[in-house]
What does this fold into?
Amino acid sequence: MFAVIKTGGLQYRVVEDQVLKVGKIKGEPGEIVQLGEVMLLGGDTPQLGAPMVSGASVAVEVIQQGRGKKVIAFKKRRRKNSRRRRGHRQEFTLIRISEILTEGKAPSKKARPKREPKAKAEKPAVETQGAERDEGVARPTAQVKSAKKPKPAAKKPAAKPKSGGKAKGKK
It folds into this structure.
């Protein structure tokens, strides 16, 4: 089953468990929000709204509230030494469609639990090379990089010989 919803002046075709970036909507991360503007319900028996399907809604889980990349609005009026630079970052909400509801039902699913970040694996001990020869001394396997020599400065082109003025010709 799918639905066409309207939020933030835009229309989106959604299915369950879809992750979507929409214009900012109210809600904290992890909260379930119900969107009521459903324009179409699709599936075995599609329902078309006029303009909205009555009793239908979509339950979404707010994953993240954020701001998009900065857009620079630069205006220049030529020959007048007039310039204006202004930036804007559009706010968005990252949502997951938890379920599509019909006939005025309330959402039954709860928000998914947050994943814990994976623990970083510990680095293994430094391997030794030739341990059987020198049992008491451990040597790292990595080769020591030779020191880089600085590059010589670029040579300037030879200067042209200066003359005492314009060449004087015979008359």
User: Anything to note?
Assistant: The radius of gyration is 34 Å. The mean pLDDT is 83. Residues 36 and 57 are 4 Å apart (CA to CA).
